[in-house]
Amino acid sequence: MQSESIYHVLTKMIEGDQQAFHALYEATYKDVYRTVSFLVDHPQDREDIMNEIYMQMWTSLPNYDPNRPFHFWLHGLVIRQVQRFRVKSWRRFRIFERIRVFSRQEHHWDQPTLRTDGTDPEISRAMHKLTDKQRTVIILRFYHDYKLEEIATLLNIPLGTVKSRYHAGLQLLRKQLVNLPLERKEKNNAY
Amino acid sequence: MPIESQISEYLHQEAETMECPPAVSKRIEQSYSQYVQRQRSKKTMKKRLISSFVAAVIMIPTAAFAAPPLIEMITRTPMTAKQVKMDAVGQAALEKLYRSYPETKSFEIIDASQLGGDPANASQGKAIQTSIVLQEKGAHGKMVRLDLNGITGEIEHVNQENWEPQEKPVISLTDQEIKSKVDDLINKLYGSSSKYECNMELMENSDQKTFILNYTEKGSATPFYQAFVQGNTISVSLIGGGPAPSVEGFFTTNGKPDYTADAFLNDEKLFSLLRMSPADLKQELAKGASVVEIAASKKISKQQVMDIIASTQAKKQIQADPHGGATNDNRTLEQLKQILEPKVLKVIEHKTETPW
């Protein structure tokens, strides 16, 4: 969707136009869902975050500056909601840990679902080894093709921090992929 | 292949396999509808706060449904300008307004809502009340609010705001000028004011200068129209049209009888439920207790009180409908009762001398 028509749709959405909502949702939901899925592993969490993102979207629509690219603004929303969610779940985790220590019960954490259908299982596994912060930078860089400067603006952190997360992330990925079985390695080094 | 392109390729491929579950979309859509509804009701609330006149609190409706802005109704449904124009009652009222005040044709409908009924679905039954707010463009534009009886189409209440210049609001005019302004409003929107005797009085309201004008028919105890003038607002209510209630002024405001709740409280069944005479009830209320508290002291629940009053009012409503829009069956009765409950609740929890 072009910026101009997006602006038109947004204005209608603020007025409560259901059709405008559908148009905007259709135009964005795949991108948003995929971004969230890369950053958050558990389906239920993804669902909650999606809902939060869209709620946040229409409540903060009046703050959107139409002169700036819509997707950049949208990704800012996505990142903030994912971060908010992490803070929240970290708090929950802390409480949970305390209970666990007292009751000495074993708990089985849900294992993140690994997708192997048609995509590279090694990279997938390697991706999961990244810290959340590294992963966010990697996704923004390689999935959304943002420049490191843009990522710094999106995450509201210094460029140096972005660079260090980016390099650390890449290095970790590289290390994981180097440990691949021989035939895979050959394929990977085919350039 | 360098690792960068490998990652990028992986991410794009992986993304293609990710499908957003339909449940998520559905949930978000619902959230949006709720948000829109909340926004609308917030908007109506806000505008209603501006337009509804503070002193309207002391209105004197004896007709059952004539207390529009006093009691904020929870069950109001917002309407679009288009729905207002489609609505028979709304349309007739707008035509009347346009005829009487041609300048209002250029006004914008900034708010409209219905109590009961569903503007999008006429088969859901008629609205008890339709409210429309029109405003001239500009920060201090003239504003009119009409509250219409959904059944009879009568105008129950009019608020006229900002019709005088800001620097010389209506309240600053001479008594004679104020009266002629109110006369004019009644003549144009209700009918002739000439057959009524007008009694104009400055209210003992320390916060803001307020005039009250009672238009009373000869020999009648209750006024037919009652107007309040405050700031730059004139607000007129239709009071007459029914017999005077057996007991008047169960509550008081500023030491003057407040007729707002009379139509609800003059209920034989309520008196027998409470095992009290109307005079006793008035006396108890004067001590500052609410109807609910009085009932509780007799081990009667709030729900029982609410049921009795809502059911009497709902029956009145059904009988009052000359076109048979409301049918006399239990379902309609129950629906009407439900719509009325917030109104009733306000009355039975009210304490004398406190603002509504």
Overview of this protein structure:
The complex is a heterodimer of chains A (191) and B (356). Chain A is built from nine helices and no strands. Chain A is mostly helical and 191 residues long. In chain A, helix 3 (43-59) crosses helix 4. In chain B, 40% of the residues lie in helices and 18% in strands. In chain B, helix 10 (302-320) crosses helix 11 (330-349). Chain B has helices at 3-16, 22-51, 81-86, 88-100, 175-189, 262-265, 268-274, 278-286, 291-297, 302-320, 330-349, and strands at residues 76-78, 108-115, 129-135, 143-149, 155-161, 197-202, 210-216, 225-230, 233-238, 251-253, 256-258. The chains are: A mainly alpha (191), B alpha+beta (356). The A-B interface holds A 16, 18, 21-22, 25, 29-30, 33-34, 37-38, 43, 46-47, 50-51, 54-55, 58-59, 115, 117-120, 123-124, 138-139, 142-143, 145, 170, 173-174, 177, 188, 190-191 and B 1-4, 6-8, 10-15, 17-18, 20-21, 23-25, 27-29, 31-33, 35-36, 39-40. Chain B: The chain crosses the membrane at residues 49-71. Chain B: This is DUF4179 domain-containing protein.
Helix content of chain B: 40-55%
Strand content of chain B: 15-25%
Number of helices of chain B: 11
Seen as an oligomer or otherwise, the chain set is heterodimer
Keywords (chain A): DNA-binding, Sigma factor, Transcription, Transcription regulation
Domain RNA polymerase sigma-70 region (chain A): 24-91, 126-175
Organism (chain A): Paenibacillus sonchi
InterPro entries (chain A): RNA_pol_sigma-70-like (IPR039425), RNA_pol_sigma-70_dom (IPR014284), RNA_pol_sigma70_r2 (IPR007627), RNA_pol_sigma70_r4 (IPR007630), RNA_pol_sigma_r2 (IPR013325), RNA_pol_sigma_r3/r4-like (IPR013324), WH-like_DNA-bd_sf (IPR036388)
